[in-house]
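Hi W., the manganese (II) ion complex you wanted:
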Amino acid sequence: MPKDLRCFVEDNADTILRVPGTVAREHLSALIVQAARPVMFEAVAGFPGWRVLDLLFVDRHAQARVLDTVPDKVLPSLAAALDRPPAPTRPVDVAPHGQNVLTGDEADLFALPCFRHGEKDPAPALIAMNVCREPDAGAVNFSFTRMTPIGPRRATYLIGSSPHQRAILAAWEERGEAMPMACVVGTHPAYEIMASYSVPNHLAEFSELEMVGNLIGEAVETVPCRTVPLDVPAHAEVVIEGWVRPGVRHDDGPGPSQALYYLPGASPQPVIEVSAITHRDRPILRQHNTLMFSDHQPLISLPHEALLYTRLRADGHDVREVFYVPWGGTLACVVQIVPQSDGETRNVLMRTLGQRWPNAKLAIAIDADVDIGSPEDLVWSISTRVDPGRDLFVVPEAKGHPIDPTARRVAGGARNAVTGKWGIDATKPPLSRPDARAVFERTLAPRMGEVRLEDFLE
Ligand SMILES: [Mn+2]
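Structure:
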C-alpha cells in the first residue's frame, strides 16, 4: 500500500486522540489548542462526512512517528534524507480522491469545514499545499499556503511568504496569462515537511515533491488534475483545482502568524478561481491550527532545524539537537552542544543567528544534560549557568523577520525588516577545562531512571 494519510492514522491510532462528539467548527481552534497531541475530530456540525485532523508535528514524539524513527533520531534521520538526491515521482492513472469529483456549480469551497484560527480572522481559512508550475512546462513548486474562500468558487491565497510561489505567478502575469494551480490537503504527513521547507534555488533542478520520496522511502505517485494541466499527489484526501487570473488581487487576512500576532496584517493577495474539487469518501481535512503549541511552529521549523544541525556538525561541533522552541514563536532557537574549547559556543550562536532563514532572533546554547524540550530545564540552565555580563551578547540592526513585532520595516520589499539579535551561552565550561566543568555537575536522585512511580500505585 502506498503511504497515505489513512495508513498513517491507522498505524498511529495509539497516539491520536479521537473526538467522537459533534463539534461546531467555530470551536475547532479552541479545542485543538487544548489537545497537545495528534487529534481527530470525527464529526463537525453542518459538514456531514468530514473529519478534521491536526497536531501531527506537535513535538518530537509526534514527529518521530511521521519519520518512522525515535524522538532522539528525528533530526539526524531528516538531515540524512535531505542530503540525498531527489527521487523521481511516478505517474499513475487512478487516485482515491477521484471518488468524488465536483466541477462547475457542484464545486463549493463553503462545503469544506474550514475554520477561523484566531478570533480576529475575517473568515474561515484553509491550510493547503500549493502546486504551481513555471510557464512552458517548467519547474514545479510545492509549498504551503493559506486559502480564504471569498465565494463558493473563489479564494484568496497567501503568497507573501513564499518566494517561489511569488516568482512563478510573476512569470505568468508577465505573459498576461492565467496560471493553473492546485491545492492539496491530507497526504502522508512527510509531504508536509517538504512543503514547509522551500529548498533555496531548487526550481532549476527539481521539485520539493521529488524530495518527499526520500522521506517516505518510496516514489511519490502523481495523477493529472481534471481541469488544469498539473500533476498532483495521487494519495491525498482533497484536491482543489483552479486558475489564477493575472493582476487580480483581493485583501487577505489578518491571520495569526507563528509568532502569535496578527502580523503582517491584511494585504492584497492573488485569487484562485476554482474549477474542480475532488475528495475521498469520508474525507479527512488535515489542518494546522496556527495558534500556540500547534503544528504551525514545529512544522515550519523542523526542516530548518535539520539544515542547521547538518551545518553545525559539518563544522565539527558536537551538536546534539537544534530546536526552535514552540513557546518562542519560532523566534528562539536552542542548540544543544558539548563545547570542546572556549569561544566555540559563541561561534555556534553567531552561526545560528546568521542563518538564511531569518527566524532566529534569540539563540540559546545548552549542554547535553539539559532536556531541550523542557521549559523548566531551559530556565534552570539559563539561571544557573549564565553570567550575563560575559555569556550574553547583542547584535543590533540585523536582518529580522517581518512577523516579529519589534522588527523595523526597511526599504526594498515587504519582507525586509531589521531587529537586534541576541545570543545566550548557557552551556557548562568546555571539555578543555574539566575542573571548571565539574562544578556545574547537575544533582540527580540516586539510581534515577531505574524506578517509575506509576509502578507502585494501586
Ligand atoms: Mn520552492
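The two ends are 43 Å apart (CA to CA).

W.
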